[in-house]
Structure prediction request, 61 residues.
Amino acid sequence: MKYAVDQDACIGCGMCEALCSEVFAIGLDGKAQAVKGSTSDNDLAASEAMASCPVGAISQE
Prediction:
């Protein structure tokens, strides 16, 4: 599954990267980005990362 991060809403807290670094990473600008889609092995972690975002900046594409 593919995810997207709203760069205007992201506060760069790093929760998504901490929960699923295979899908999310903090970029040089200090904001999160979805670096690749999730797989069956990490889809649950990616979904938890989306749900845990304190500002709701992550969505599924």
